[in-house]
Amino acid sequence: MELKRVVVTGIGAVSPLGNSAAETWRKLLDGVSGAAPITHFDTSLFKTRFACELKGFKAEDFIDRKEARKMDPYCHYAMAAAGMAMDDCAVNLDSTDKNRVGVVFGVGIGGMKTFEDEITNYALHKDTLGPKFSPFFVPKMIADICAGQISIKYGLHGPNYITSSACASSSNA
Question: Exposed, middle or buried: residue 162 (CB in 10 Å: 0-12, 13-18, 19+)?
Fold first, then answer.
């Protein structure tokens, strides 16, 4: 069997240590922890009150506001990291066969925020609105939508999939 070559040409990162690969790498080398008190929800009913949340991330810095509304936050992060990687790479997509360029993305789990919001909305309004979900519910939450959104944004027609193997997802990608 002939092995195919994979070339990583650019790097992008959105992490609790920073919103770029350079910032994340610098803080890793400096031994900085990304753990801090949880700010995204009320933790008063929980024993654990710290996590590794993103800080200072603004989806609008990377994605059109209208498009961002159709995506779960995890997809915002994927689009941002992919955008940084595309800016970092030396590939000119205008002179590249886009059928030979694909997207493989590592995802631990898909759109949990969308899932939470839809289930909460259903529980709060099921008696008045009936059993109703947003038409964007499934497209926003499925794990592989981020690879699809990246491919759409850059017009890539090669292989397109995600790996989902918990904390090893990005390594497997």
Answer: buried
What domains are defined for the chain? 12-57 (no CATH), 62-172 (3.40.47.10)
From CA 132, how far away is CA 138, in angstroms rounded? 13
Q: Give the pTM.
A: 0.88
Closest by CA to 13, choosing from 96, 64, 82, is 82
Q: Which amino acid is at 28?
A: L
Q: What are phi and psi of 126, to 5 degrees?
A: -60, -35
First to last CA, the chain: 21
Place of tokens 């066969």: 97
Q: By the 8 A CB rule, do 162 and 144 touch? A: yes
d(CA 10, CA 165): 23
State which H helix or E strand residue 106 sits in: strand 103-106
What digits encode the pLDDT tens for the residues 82-108?
999 999 998 889 999 999 989 998 888
